[in-house]
Structures are given as structure tokens and as C-alpha cells.
Design brief:
Distance between the termini: 74 Å
Helix content: 40-55%
Strand content: 5-15%
Strand order of the largest sheet: 3-4-2-5-6-1-7
Shape: globular
Number of domains: 5
Largest sheet: 7 strands, parallel
Mean pLDDT: 83
CATH superfamily of the largest domain: P-loop containing nucleotide triphosphate hydrolases
Structural class: alpha/beta
Number of helices: 34
Number of strands: 17
Radius of gyration: 31 Å
């Protein structure tokens, strides 16, 4: 039987596929013939099959070097799924007990294990090196090989030690696999692994099914919530650069009724693993994560990848967006971009070695170029990876579907360059923009730059425009930021040439990428005053009539801060009403219909333009504490014990519980009230609030008598009353 037929038989037998994709077959043949092999295939291209199939066929055990425990577990599970024997694949890492490690080693030495996954850190441990010297190794597969290169987006120094360790254990063919590598990164990988002679297999980087879009980072939480609600039930990943932002965003989405979990390296291994499994098993729809999540995650139907923060490099961006639509179906890749984020990333590099700063800044410039470009995003991405995209319009990115306005700006570039020269290349972009627009800031005055010829020479545009000119001139190589003297603008030889012989310069006139707006979608006013006084009074009248109809005090229906928020946001559907401060789903359904009907009529009659982004429910600063209180009450823990556990006074705890109830959450503290008040007393206070005009504790104490009741008794019963009647 020919080798090809044998390969196809094994492909069908083990993996259930009837044909290979793209370069898979040729790459697998290279491995079977014992050649060093370099494989560059985008996410979803079937890289793992290139070492899994040969490993199953060949004598001995393949050592797969992989960077993440989660990735190993995923791969081992999938290999065990194709075999009748669990010991066909194992991983060896720090998550295993001593007994489990021994079991793995026994299976490997007995020749039962075809693939052994190890982290680079585990590979370098002395006891593992000694153990592997006794193993018959078919080949080494270095997965996520871009981690070797300082120019790669996920550089891991321990990857640099793979080659010397391999030589110590015993040489065998090496396969390097990655989903993203520029020519520079590819050379770095091959050189470092000592496989410059490798057979190289590259697949196209074009993923036609992926839609690419870059949005200005203005109220990103509100935009994300709207997007997810418009795509119900679909799986998605949201990437953030910091662990803190992962936690905050996941909590914001959760309180906006989205099935979501966080994932980052700061969580304990069990929680990370559980959260990942819940995402894979579709118990949750959305994973908010740092880039620690996703390497090798084999979920084919991720329908969107959102970048809350723009990645540090285009390779990182390509790798992470590539996790969408691996089955060839819909995959939306949406990135939020603010130039402030680039400046933050730039600041993080300050203090690193100059060579590292140069690499980092060049990668960031490529990212800025991609984010602010007006041409097809596919052309930029594929060009970055050394591939030419022939069509001018891909029909599946924001720039092709909604072309941006282009300005001829050679005159503006000349003015910018002349101003940089006039201040002798000793100032940052913001200062030079102030000079151009003629802004007499303290710094401009103190350096007497308001006396320069170029002061006000660009007052036909604002400073945002001039900052865009600097950025796009930087991308074009006309100016540069001095790495040694952080942030000062210098003119390059190309820039001097441009001044001598000006050329056409196309500037993208688009979004304001350094917005001054509040990005948080901040909450509504806490007080009782409304944004629209006329509507606020109408809402109060409506509340009064509904309260009479239900025989309830007005404050039980909606409290004043909720009415104030309605008079600012103008909610005209029940779903929008639920985003109003202090309005939960129950309250919206119980009392909301007449309120949204009144607001809708008011909006139509007065031709009001409503805010486009409704205020998103915000996570209170003490949200973890509130969750702790709710969970403790659910478990019927004494309120005094809850206060003691958190080191606060009892009245302070009552204030927290009141805030929870006022925002529309129903809680049951009967178990505690029954301990301090008898049934008759409870009924008396409850009846008082049923008739009361307001919920003042002082008034209640005066009416009911402070000899019989304490302030705490009244507050406890008010909590019960509001929760039972209003929520």
C-alpha cells in the first residue's frame, strides 16, 4: 500500500477526516521522513494534526512542548477522544501530584504513550531530563513557536532553552509550529532551534469569513453590552490587557444579565480550568480574558472576538482574532481603539533596554497604522505577514463596507514638520499641537513659544487633528519619537526629504481616537433632581396615581433617583428601563409599562433626541462586598456575624443592605427579624409603612414610639417592606 493511502487510512481511522487540508499532507510526510519541519498555519488551519498523526503512526513517544497547562489539558482530552486507551496522551506539568507524575512516567516507559505534552519549564527540570534520556523519542514538536522570538507577540525566555535541553536529552527531528510569524520571527525561530535546514510549510493567512472592525473607544462597556444582546446565545471572547479590567468588565457584563466568566493568570488553576471548561461546554456564552486564554483552545464556533484594549502587536491581534469562526462560519472581530491606550503601552516600555524599546515601539507603530488606516484591513494584515491580497475591496471589513474620508494633507504635514524644526526637535507631540493651534498654555508661554512664527499656523484645525497628523506621519516614517529622550518628536531623513520635495500625503479623517469623553458610561445622578424637570414631575404624578391604585406608598414603586435617571435617559422600552438606576427586572415588569409609555409619548411630542448609549448598569465599587452580603443572607447567617466578619458596625451593614434592596434586588431577612421582633410588632411596623407618605425612619419612630422600637428595628422592617412589596 502506498504511503499516501496509508496516511489517508490513518487520518480516517483516528481523526474521522476523509481528506487533508492545504499543506497538511506534505508537512506530515516531512515529519514521517525524519526532517526538521517548520509549519506556519493560521489558527484553524489544522496545525496540531501535523504532529498528532505522525505521533500515532511512528515508533516511540513524541514530546510536545507547549506553553500553557490549559492548552495541554485540551489537547490531551482531544487525543484521548480518538483512542480507546487513555494513556495514548499525557501531560507532565506542575499541576500533577507526585503519584500522577509516576503514573505518567510508567506509561511512557512502557511504550503506551504516543504524545507527551510538557511545558518548557518542566522540560528543563533535572529529574525530567534524566527521565527523558531513557525514552524512545520519535520527534520534538515545539507548539506556539513564536514564543521563542523577541519579535514575536508572546516572547517567553524559557523557550530559548529548548535547543540545549534537546541536545542533552538526545537529538530527534524538531517540528516548530506557529499561527503567526513574520519573516523576521520565522528566521529567529529556525535559528534558535537550530533548524535552518527545515522544510518550510506556509498556509495563506487570509481568513475570508472573519469580519474586522476598529471602533473608537467611547463608552466601550455600553457598546459591548449592546453587541452581545444583539447576538444572543453566541459564543464570544473579550480580551483585556490587565487582570483588573478582566474582573471589572466580567462583573459589569454579569450584572447586565450576560452569561460570562473571567479568565486570567492571577486566578488559581482550578478556577481557571473550571471557567474554561464551562465556556467550552457552553454553560456560559462569554469569556473575558487576558491573552493567557485561548492558545490552542479548540472551540470551532466562537462567533466574535472583541478587544477591549488594542493588542501590543499585529501578531497578537491576528492570533487572538483567529480564534473566531474556526469552523468557517461567522466570525466578527471588533477592536476598541484609543490612542491613549497606545501611549499607556508606550509608557510601560520606558526603563527597558533600548533595543527592547525599539522593538516594542515598532510593533506598536504597526498596530497604530492598522487601527487608523483607511484601506482594506485585510491588505494591511496580510502584507504584515508577507502575503499579497490581490483584491482592493474584501467586502468584509469596516473600511471596505464603510469607506473613510481621505484628505490630501501634504500642506498640513509640512506645517507640522516645520514646527518640530522650529522648536529644535525638543518637544512632545501635545506641546507642538498646542503651538500649531495657537493655544497659550502655561508651558507654551514659559518657553515663549507663543512668539514663534508657527504659533497659530494650524488654527484651521484642532489639536486632535494635529495629533492624527503626527501619528500618521510617524507611520509613514517622516517623524519618529526619540527613544532615549522619551517622547520628543524628531524628523527622519525621509521627513527632511519630504520638506525639500513634498509629495501627496493622504490623511484619514475619521473618528476622534483620543476622546475626552467619559469612557465608563457613568451612572445616573444619586440625588432626586431630574434631568428634564417637566418629565420628572410627570413621572412623580404617575407614580402617585399607581401607588394609590396598588395601595402602596410611592417610594415602593420607584425611588426618586430612579425617576431622575429616567428623566435623563428617556427609556422607551422595558429592556431600556432595566438599565435605569435602582430598576431590576421585577420592578420593570411590575410597574414599568405605564412609565415607558408616558416617556415614549413625551419623547415623540417634544421631538427629543435621546442619548444613543443608555447608561449601563455599573458595578458598585463595593460589588464584591454586596455579593458576599447577599450570599451570606441566602445562607441565613446572622447579620451581626456578617458585620463582625467584615469588621464593620451593624448600622453600616444595614446601610449596605438598604442599598441592595433600593437597587431592585429582593432579599429575605425574615430569619433574623423573627429573632428580634415578634409577629405583632412586625405587623405594626409593616402596616405603618403601607400607609406612610415617605420612608423616613425618624418619622416612623415618632409615630410608633421609640420606647417600643429602636432605629434598627425600623430599618430592618423597612428593608423587609421594600423587598416584599417593591422587588
Amino acid at each position: 500500500m502506498s504511503t499516501n493511502l496509508l496516511l489517508n487510512d490513518n487520518l480516517q481511522k483516528y481523526f474521522g477526516f476523509d481528506r487533508f487540508k492545504g499543506e497538511q499532507e506534505a508537512a506530515i510526510m516531512s515529519v514521517l521522513e525524519g526532517h526538521n519541519t517548520f509549519v506556519l498555519m493560521p489558527t484553524g488551519g489544522g496545525k496540531s494534526l501535523i504532529y498528532q498523526l505522525p505521533a500515532v503512526i511512528m515508533e516511540g513517544t513524541a514530546i510536545v512542548i507547549s506553553p500553557l497547562i490549559a492548552l495541554m489539558k485540551n489537547q490531551v482530552d482531544s487525543m484521548r477522544g480518538i483512542s480507546t486507551e487513555d494513556n495514548i496522551a499525557h501531560f507532565l506539568n506542575s499541576s500533577l501530584s507526585k503519584a500522577a507524575i509516576q503514573d505518567v512516567k510508567d506509561d511512557v516507559l512502557a511504550g503506551k504513550t504516543k504524545l507527551l505534552y510538557v511545558a518548557p519549564e518542566s522540560l528543563t527540570k533535572e529529574e525530567n531530563v534524566e527521565f527523558l534520556k531513557n525514552v524512545r523519542i520519535s520527534f520534538y514538536a515545539v507548539d506556539e513557536a513564536h514564543c521563542i522570538s523577541e519579535w514575536g507577540h508572546d516572547f517567553r525566555p524559557e523557550y530559548r532553552r529548548i535547543r540545549p535541553i534537546v541536545q542533552e536529552i538526545g537529538t530527534a527531528p524538531i517540528i516548530a509550529l506557529t499561527a503567526t510569524a513574520t519573516a523576521k520571527v520565522q528566521h529567529d525561530i529556525q535559528k534558535n532551534l537550530g533548524i535552518l535546514d527545515a522544510n518550510v510549510f506556509k498556509a495563506s493567512f487570509n481568513r475570508p469569513n472573519l469580519y474586522y472592525e476598529v471602533r473608537p473607544k467611547i463608552k466601550p462597556e455600553a457598546q459591548i453590552i449592546r453587541f452581545i444582546k444583539e447576538n444572543p446565545g453566541k459564543s464570544g471572547i473579550i480580551y483585556c490587557l490587565s487582570r483588573k479590567k478582566v474582573e471589572e468588565l466580567a462583573e459589569t457584563l454579569r450584572i447586565n444579565e450576560i452569561r460570562v466568566l473571567p479568565y486570567h493568570a492571577g486566578m488559581d488553576a482550578t478556577t481557571r480550568s473550571t471557567n474554561q471548561d464551562k465556556f467550552l461546554m457552553e454553560e456560559v456564552d462569554v469569556m473575558v480574558a487576558t491573552i493567557a486564554f485561548g492558545m490552542g483552545i479548540d472551540k470551532p464556533d466562537v462567533r466574535y472576538v472583541i478587544h477591549y484594549d488594542i493588542p501590543k502587536s499585529l501578531e497578537g491581534y491576528y492570533q487572538e482574532t483567529g480564534r473566531a469562526g474556526r469552523d468557517g462560519g461567522e466570525g466578527k472581530c471588533i477592536t476598541f481603539y484609543s490612542y491613549k491606550d497606545i501611549q499607556k503601552l508606550d509608557k510601560f516600555m520606558h526603563g527597558k533596554p533600548v533595543a527592547e524599546q525599539e522593538i516594542g515601539r515598532q510593533l506598536l507603530l504597526d498596530t497604530v497604522s492598522y487601527a487608523e488606516t483607511a484601506i482594506c484591513r485585510r491588505i494591511i494584515l496580510l502584507h504584515y505577514f508577507g502575503e499579497k491580497f490581490e483584491a482592493e475591496n474584501c467586502g468584509n471589513c469596516d473600511n471596505c463596507l464603510n469607506p473613510k474620508e481621505i484628505l490630501e494633507a501634504s500642506d498640513e504635514v509640512i506645517r507640522a514638520l516645520e514646527t518640530i524644526l522650529e522648536v529644535k526637535e525638543k518637544y512632545k507631540a501635545e506641546h507642538i499641537a498646542d503651538i500649531l493651534v495657537g493655544k497659550s498654555t502655561a508651558a507654551v508661554k514659559s518657553f515663549r513659544h507663543d512668539e514663534l512664527e508657527s504659533f497659530g499656523a494650524g488654527d484651521d484645525h484642532d489639536e486632535h487633528f494635529w495629533n492624527a497628523v503626527f501619528r500618521q506621519a510617524m507611520v509613514a516614517g517622516l517623524i519618529t519619537k526619540d527613544i532615549e529622550n522619551y517622547g520628543l518628536l524628531k524628523i527622519t531623513p525621509e521627513g527632511h526629504e519630504f520638506l525639500k520635495n513634498p509629495q501627496p500625503f493622504q490623511l484619514v479623517k475619521n473618528h476622534r481616537y483620543e476622546d475626552d469623553e467619559d469612557e465608563s458610561g457613568a451612572g445616573a445622578p444619586a440625588g432626586g433632581s431630574g434631568g428634564d424637570p417637566e418629565l420628572f414631575n410627570m413621572l412623580k404624578d404617575l407614580r402617585k396615581s399607581i401607588s394609590k391604585k396598588h395601595n402602596l406608598p410611592p417610594f415602593v414603586i420607584f425611588q426618586d433617583p430612579s425617576l431622575a435617571d429616567m428623566s435623563i435617559q428617556y427609556p422607551i422600552t422595558l429592556e431600556e428601563l432595566q438599565k435605569i438606576q435602582g430598576v431590576g427586572q421585577g420592578k420593570a415588569l411590575r410597574y414599568g409599562k405605564e412609565f415607558v409609555s408616558l416617556i415614549r409619548k413625551f419623547v415623540e411630542e417634544n421631538e427629543i433626541e435621546r442619548p444613543q448609549d443608555l447608561v449601563v448598569r455599573q458595578v458598585a465599587n463595593k460589588s464584591k462586598f454586596k455579593v458576599y452580603i447577599i450570599q451570606s443572607i441566602d445562607r441565613k447567617i446572622s447579620l451581626e456575624d456578617i458585620a463582625d466578619a467584615k469588621g464593620i458596625e451593624f448600622p453600616e451593614l444595614l446601610s449596605e443592605i438598604e442599598a441592595i434592596v433600593n437597587s431592585g434586588t429582593r432579599i429575605n431577612i425574615d430569619y433574623f427579624i423573627n429573632e428580634v421582633l415578634d409577629e405583632e410588632q412586625q405587623q405594626e411596623i409593616f402596616d405603618y409603612f403601607r400607609e406612610a407618605q415617605d420612608d423616613s425612619v425618624e418619622t416612623a419612630l415618632t409615630e410608633l414610639g421609640d420606647e417600643d422600637y429602636s432605629e434598627e428595628h425600623i430599618r430592618l422592617m423597612r428593608i423587609k417592606f421594600l423587598s416584599d412589596m417593591g422587588n
